[in-house]
Amino acid sequence: MAGGISAGQVADRLTGDTALPGQEGSETEQRIARSYGVAADVSVIPVLTAPEGATIDRAAVTAVADQIRRVPGSLVLDYGGTGDRAFLTGDGRSTFLLVYGGSGPDDPVAQAVAGGAGRSAADQVGYRLQLTGDSLLSEGNAAAAEEPSVLSETLIGAAGALVVLLFVFASFLALVPLLIAAVAILSTFLVVLVLTTFADVSFMVQFLVALIGLGVAIDYSLLVVTRWREERSRGAANSEAVVIAVGTAGRAVFASGVTVAISLAALVVLPVPAVRSMGYGGMLIPLVSTLVVLTLLPAVLSLAGPRVDWPRIRTETRASRGWSAWARAVIRHRWVAATVALAALTVAVVPVFGMQIGQPGADSLATKGAAHEALTALRDGGVGSGVLTPMVVLVRPGGDPKSIVDAAEQVPGVRAAVAAPAAPDGHTEVVVLPERETKNNTSIAVVTAVRDATKSLPGYVGVAGVGAIVLDWQNAVYDNFWYVLVVIALVTFVLLVRSFRSILLPLKAVLLNLFSVAAVFGLTTWFWQDGNGSEALFGVPATGAMTFWVPVVIFAFLFGLSMDYEVFILHRMREEYDRTGSTSVAVKEGLGRTGRLVTSAALILFFAFAALASTPQTDVKVLATALGAGILLDATIVRALLVPALVSLFGRWNWWLPAPVARLLRVEPSPVRVVGVTKGREPVGVG
């Protein structure tokens, strides 16, 4: 009950801030907010168009702008106030105004402009009023549609999961993992609610907790319940089957949950409060799910497991025939399997070298709607889309705004620069309009050029705006992210060495995970950034860039979630090898017992991400499709083909853990076993 109440309260306490404390762009934005009481990014851009055959009258524009200025908390720059013809289209029939206020489409200034303050003033002078701007365009093509709620998306994901679970268990036992997932999700929301009392938490956390929590909790439950069913099929009493399942599959769940949580530490250590909150929320998902699976699930199985396992159409008496046959084929043709899988991943990785970091361009945010039409009208009149991303150079009291205006206008790629009226505390904004949007690596050179041209002039404080934030992210996050990646990989490696009692298996697992994540980035770049299929499937043209926060979130979640399947498969292979001493048997039995499980778990997570992709925001679609594609790629090419092929090739060296390392990690050592040759099955000494 407490979890259900907290889930309803969390949404109202989340934020969308992505500031970077200590970086010039973010610090300048905060100073602008203190001085002017407005955001550094344009709130809304009204476009005024004169009647057919007439041109824009400066006095009429001034009348409209003055009406908007009466809105509390607004700042307006326009042709009427500045006299700068850069605010006019080439034919002189249209003009745009830069209105600063809050942020997002719910900003009261933007709402007032769209309502009486803007439209009534435009009607009085006989001009047509249209509105555009990044916040309006970011609503996408579905701006008029009702955005799916977290609850509805979760129910869609749960429905897909139920179909998979019914196929796996063919009994009412399919409802048990859903029950565990519901408890885990609501418990996580309860902890997140506590987190919001002393830290800002990103709005994305609610989607991550609900949908990724659904998939993770079901996956973990699926592993334990399947093993419990297997032991009961072998004749164990119910209580004994529960103990064995928790001691074997539960150990894999614990190792997996800790590994996923550690991978999300990559988000926690970044100097971005919003992304850090995603890391905290993300870490809670596997940890809470693990806790619920290892406590509540055994109790449910002990009390009601045999009664809900009805009708028992499918049993777990033997490994899957299909997956066992597949494993034998991979063992027999291990070189071919490994080569094909590595080649496929390599091809997928190639586009990643062209990945751009920034924000999606205007054309990918909306291809129809009023905001798109207003921007098109400006473009047709010779005004570039750079009006969506103006830079703001803040000048301290006693500085020289005019010298900064003159210097900025000399920078190639700048359309115009105008000084705003001074703020009450004496600071002055100089707004610089680039010709093109400054949203990614290829277009922010003009931001650097403006910064270089003005930073030595009297009164310079800093440059703010979208382009400046992209530069902040490059400096604070991406230039140093490889340090975080190395630390996460090393910690994961140590944990897996202890779990698998092996040196080679964890090394292979970490390297393959990094390789598969790179492949997902390549596919995402090819699909979304380059636009190869995004418009056909989602109606979204090429984005031109990956939103700066998306790649780090994809890496953290995908690295951990992909490792789930590695742990599931290799943990069972290790168990079978300890039992038989044969690598071939370990591969065949391990994949035969976990192949259907991993495939089902991947499908469940895929349905959850498919539900998340139904949201109209392009950024969220990119995140959801990348995670969904990564899960499927990992469960098929990597875990079903490459992993068994490599384990078969490495033979007895898979299981080697020298005594000194084992003593250090406080586990049992695993010396290399020397065995004979089985022709046509295993190489010499595969063990």
TrEMBL record:
<feature type="transmembrane region" description="Helical">
    <location>
        <begin position="284"/>
        <end position="304"/>
    </location>
</feature>
<feature type="transmembrane region" description="Helical">
    <location>
        <begin position="252"/>
        <end position="272"/>
    </location>
</feature>
<feature type="transmembrane region" description="Helical">
    <location>
        <begin position="597"/>
        <end position="616"/>
    </location>
</feature>
<dbReference type="GO" id="GO:0005886">
    <property type="term" value="C:plasma membrane"/>
</dbReference>
<feature type="transmembrane region" description="Helical">
    <location>
        <begin position="178"/>
        <end position="199"/>
    </location>
</feature>
<dbReference type="Pfam" id="PF03176">
    <property type="entry name" value="MMPL"/>
</dbReference>
<keyword id="KW-0812">Transmembrane</keyword>
<dbReference type="InterPro" id="IPR000731">
    <property type="entry name" value="SSD"/>
</dbReference>
<feature type="transmembrane region" description="Helical">
    <location>
        <begin position="509"/>
        <end position="528"/>
    </location>
</feature>
<feature type="transmembrane region" description="Helical">
    <location>
        <begin position="335"/>
        <end position="357"/>
    </location>
</feature>
<keyword id="KW-1133">Transmembrane helix</keyword>
<keyword id="KW-0472">Membrane</keyword>
<feature type="domain" description="SSD">
    <location>
        <begin position="152"/>
        <end position="303"/>
    </location>
</feature>
<feature type="transmembrane region" description="Helical">
    <location>
        <begin position="480"/>
        <end position="497"/>
    </location>
</feature>
<dbReference type="InterPro" id="IPR050545">
    <property type="entry name" value="Mycobact_MmpL"/>
</dbReference>
<feature type="transmembrane region" description="Helical">
    <location>
        <begin position="205"/>
        <end position="225"/>
    </location>
</feature>
<keyword id="KW-1003">Cell membrane</keyword>
<feature type="transmembrane region" description="Helical">
    <location>
        <begin position="548"/>
        <end position="570"/>
    </location>
</feature>
<protein>
    <submittedName>
        <fullName>Membrane protein</fullName>
    </submittedName>
</protein>
<dbReference type="InterPro" id="IPR004869">
    <property type="entry name" value="MMPL_dom"/>
</dbReference>
<feature type="transmembrane region" description="Helical">
    <location>
        <begin position="155"/>
        <end position="173"/>
    </location>
</feature>
